[in-house]
Specification:
123 residues, 46% strand
């Protein structure tokens, strides 16, 4: 069974940190670029970071640049999102997904979506 499961979400105060995990089963992450996306209530799902499959290079959307770090552990078949200095505007459901066509791929080329994990930042 192909499955991608996110975990690590929760509630945190502004300035706090969380680490999200996304573990794949039924397929091997090393064959894919992996992206993290987030969706706040009433807004579209936006890509925030991605790691490429061929060299593990990463890119970040401007709102999270310098605060979030994406990585992956091939042995654990897991991708991570370290989030530091969290802000209220980071509140959203966070999702991971994969693509075989690189980090710049059109949304239609992304699949294996996880169920999402909620992050809430408030004082």
């Amino acid at each position: 069974q192909v499955q991608f499961v996110e975990s690590g979400g929760g509630s945190v105060q502004p300035g706090g940190s969380l680490r999200l995990s996304c573990t794949a089963s039924g397929f091997t992450l090393e064959n894919y670029a992996v992206g993290w996306f987030r969706q706040a209530p009433g807004k579209e799902r936006d890509g925030i970071t991605c790691i490429n499959s061929y060299d593990d290079s990463t890119n970040y959307a401007d709102p999270v640049k310098g605060r979030f770090t994406m990585s992956r552990d091939y042995a654990k078949n897991t991708a991570y999102l370290q989030m530091n200095n969290l802000k209220p505007e980071d509140t959203a459901a966070y999702y991971c997904a994969t693509t075989r066509t690189g980090c710049g791929s059109n949304r239609a080329h992304w699949g294996n979506w996880g169920q999402g994990t909620q992050v809430t930042v408030s004082s």
